[in-house]
Amino acid sequence: MPLAPAARTMIDQIEAAGGPPLWEMSVEDARAISAVMGAMDQPPDVATIEDRVIPGPGGDLAVRIYTPDAPAPRPVIAFFHGGGFVICSIETHDGLARRLANATGAVVVSVEYRLAPEVRCPESAEDCYAATVWTREHAAELGADPERLVVAGDSAGGNLAAVVALMARERGGPPITSQVLVYPVIDAACDAPSYTENGEGYFLEATGMRWFWDHYLGPEGDGKHHHASPIHADDHSELPPAVVITAEFDPLRDEGEAYAEALEAAGVPVTVRRYDGMIHGFVSMPMVFPEADDAVARIAEAVSDALGHLSPRSG
């Protein structure tokens, strides 16, 4: 399928605006631009939103808690924003977190994990793991069911969700009932065929992705460790059922789909959906791409199916 006209228009507008590419920017400038783009969203209302601070392995972590108008006890989602481990925040992903809460009927705990290069891999993942543990321990207080715990994220956040699922299996908990991976970052090698097919001119570029990895791994990081690249785990069995969303014109397309295949081969139930004509980031841009709402609806359906065998606990 050809590139969606809305995607072509958006990319042309970005190119016409000029400015240096991501990999020629300072980290501070890249973060400033991501904040401006995030502010362009028009997020829906959610019943209640609360900002809190929770303990993390390197100090306090900010979280934003979204509670939808849905009967308690609700499922609970620990959500990790994208941004290549370097940029973006709970603010830039406020709209996506709201939509997930409303669509799934779950309490969403969006995590402000530490970014690279201030920290290196796997410190961001350790923050997300700690926040997931906190989310389960405080689920009842949040009007949620601790036995229906989901981890979710987009792009680098998808990587972090996958890594947290691996960490939870390795560490004996917390029990996670589903993982939602939206065009996830899966392999630091950056050598899948889609990096060649879609490496230039489609919003997220291969050179930019390598810039992100350079910041996250640092000069001595191990990109083949499964806490960096989940595809390199020795064993993918006994992991939570997964929802994997990919986009046709995305350098990350093939690694996300390869991870879905690895999970399926290990006996993990997987729902995978490639959105033809779409580019990386489309799920956070419903004002541009109507497919974003469809993707969120499919995530909600798949999460509901994964949680369907569990009975909500009272209290």
Give structural notes.
The protein is an alpha/beta fold and 315 residues long. The chain has a single domain (5-307), classed as Alpha/Beta hydrolase fold, catalytic domain (Rossmann fold). The chain is 36% helix and 21% strand. An eight-stranded mixed sheet has the order 1-2-4-3-5-6-7-8, with helices on both faces. Helix 4 (123-137) packs across helix 5. It is globular and about 50 Å long.
In DSSP terms, counting alpha (H) and pi (I) runs of 4 or more, how many helices? 9
| Terminus-to-terminus distance | 49 Å
- Mind describing the biggest β-sheet? 8 strands, mixed
Classify the fold: give the CATH topology: Rossmann fold
The H-and-E topology, N to C, reads as HHEEEHEHEHEHHEHEH
State the secondary-structure class.
Answer: alpha/beta
CATH class: Alpha Beta
Total number of domains: 1
Q: Helical amount among residues, as a percent range? A: 25-40%
Overall outline: globular
- Proportion in β-strands: 15-25%
Task: Give a concise summary.
With 315 residues, the chain is α/β, with parallel strands linked by helices.
Layout of helices and strands, plus pairs?
Layout (H helix, E strand, L loop, with lengths): L4 H13 L9 H12 L9 E9 L2 E9 L6 E7 L13 H11 L2 E6 L10 H15 L6 E11 L1 H16 L6 E5 L10 H5 L8 H12 L24 E8 L3 H13 L4 E10 L11 H17 L8
Parallel strand pairs: 3-4, 3-5, 5-6, 6-7, 7-8
Antiparallel strand pairs: 1-2, 2-4
